[in-house]
Fold each of these.
Amino acid sequence: MKNVIKYFMVLIMAMIFSNVANAQSNGGFDPTRFKAELEKFVSTEAHLTQSEARKFFPLYHEMCQKQRVLYAKIGELKRNRPATDEKCKAAILESDRLAIEIDELQVTYHNKFLTILKPGKLFDVIQAISRFHRKAMREAGTRR
């Protein structure tokens, strides 16, 4: 069950990043504005102090950058169907390995976040980030 949830979360994040990339090609996405809106929304929703926000967001953005690299590799593997069953199997296994690496990266950063924020506050931050991304996806859908 945990693997299904993790796979679902990876799929959602991949969709978010693909929509972001698509919006960029249309000239409608401003990464600086998106980052500022995310920070403002999360800080407000999770009641972060300025000190907590200053410590948390650089680490969070660092984690996201590393995850984006891994999601891009998964995307490359899924874009082109390999010619043989052996190569298909290798692509599937590599994609699975990368998904696990994303999860391990998240665990590592969650532990770092817990040195900055209390567990309850980190829980609120994670929920707020999720709500922000859902909101951003809804808004992106209505702009098209």
Note: The radius of gyration is 17 Å.
Amino acid sequence: MNDYYGELGVAQDASPEEIKRAYRKLARKLHPDVNPSEEASEQFKRVAQAYDVVGDAEKRRAYDMGNDPYAMAGGGAGYGQGFSFSDIMDAFFGGGAAAAGPRSRMQRGQDALIGVEIDLSTAVFGGAEEITFDTAVTCSVCHGDGARPGTGKHTCEICHGSGQVQEMQRSFLGQVMTTRPCHACRGYGEVIDDPCFNCSGEGRIRDRRTITVKVPAGVDSGTRIQLTGEGEVGPGGGPSGDLYVEVRVRKHATFQRRGDDLHCSVELPMTAAALGTSLPLETFDGPRDVEIPQGTQPGDVITLRGLGVTHLRTQSRGDLMVHANVRVPTRLDPQQEDLLRQLAKERGEERPEPRFGRVEKGLFGKLRDAFQAK
């Protein structure tokens, strides 16, 4: 049985990464383009054959159990036991033929998802946010080619550019021909002579990017903005995936958002609620006067039309709702108490008639109960 570990110069318990590094080192030294001698050419074939066996997890297990896929064919296609049921099905029903041909090094990059936190004012009117994130970008040295500048690629000597190799295997059904990706070129059909030192031949590296995201008016926490082609660059200089930016709106000190309406509360003295007044309010559209009508009751709502959040994908806006919270004094001096008693006497309210009834819930309490009842 061939000593494949010895051909590669690694121990039998070597990791897949150690085996791959050993093969690459020997291939660069023995490749016919680098070393044209017949001895080096023969040794290169043995090294490629060794990597084809121990570089594949399934074949390696079979080899470690004493099954050499090349032993019975004198170094050609062999009859190893390292087969799978899918290999047999592909051989009989043509599954392997459908995947014929080398695969491209150029692949689409993955999509990415990052979060951005915005102020409520940005959600109202829209705006631009600058975000910084780590992602895969095109290698600046080889520009996605994967090869060190000044070098190139050559057709794989093992699969002759097809990206696949055929093997004869023995099974309980007899001898079957299977097709597998070539381990020498990993199915690409070509080998990089000298991989780029910056990206190790992948054509991309990890780096930090900063971009400006246009945030449309009306977004809310959980809204995702899709930026086409701003995701990770694909291997081999492949096209970039998409970037999804998930929005989270910061809490505001004064306003609370409910749908596209904004809500706030104002605390009024009992006298101001009874007599009416005008109060200044700093809104997202600048200062506005809130007119408190005479006889305002606790829980009354004063609506400022069109000062809420812009509806997503439209130009119309919600409203700004000001909830009145009437403050009743808890401490009175003798003069104030006397004035109130005089007022109560004038209004005939010294001994008011009791008017008990059900506790009526506010609008939002009724809506909450309606949803809970479903």
Note: The longest strand covers residues 127-138.
Amino acid sequence: MPELPEVETIRRALIKDILGKKIKNIEVLSPKQFIGDKKKAIGQKIVDIKRTGKIMAIHLSGKLYLNIHLKMAGQLLYSDKNGQVTFTHKIPFVSGNSLPAKTTRIIIGFTDGSTLFFNDLRKFGWIKVSDKPEKPTGTDVLAKDFTLQFVNSLVHNYLKPIKLLLMEQDKLAGIGNIYASEALFYAGIDPRRKAKSLSESEAKKLYQSILKVIDTGLKYNGSSAGDEAYVLPDASRGRYQDHMVVYHREGEPCPNGCKGKVERTKQGGRSTFFCPKCQK
């Protein structure tokens, strides 16, 4: 699932691609993935694009929003042309590089002839027309409210393992499986430890490590690891997977040189990667 660096990278790209454009038409190929009345959005101009956690909110004129959640395998692909469009980069889950394809669920056309394609192999993602931006209840990692004091209060009132806390979007918005594993490694904290057991100095290391991995993820335009479901709007890949320290590194030597090896365990139905020798 795209996490904060991936969604923020897409947002920044779309700011350059579609800001100021007017929606000419919306073709809904998968009705369950488009919520609301598309007619309300047609004819509206894109005035801003915001993000909170993993959710994007495209602000339209007329005080409307197109809220977008990519979920597991959603993609937003942009072309300055309409009709059948061929991309330079290979599009995951698509035979050839042309859109629309079998995985295309929604097509947004603009009055200047450009197009935004919403692709989703698994059909979990959605676009929703609303009079307000959709937001998770948790604090966004890039928001001014994400402070050391906030992290201290969060961990000291949580009885479950710290890895699970980092992934709870109603508490902390934007972090998923990849960046939780990476942040805990940099902080030297065992992901299986109860959050409440962290000392103030450990909470500070975790806070700094979260900011570090998110910043690095953004620097490399997110991670196109595994099935490479995540791509930028031009279908190019992110490069953070080339800089991961423990995620998907099971059996490899610990990057700290402690002579331990990266192990994998299951937490909340998801894989966690860590070094048991130097993460305490």
Note: The radius of gyration is 20 Å.
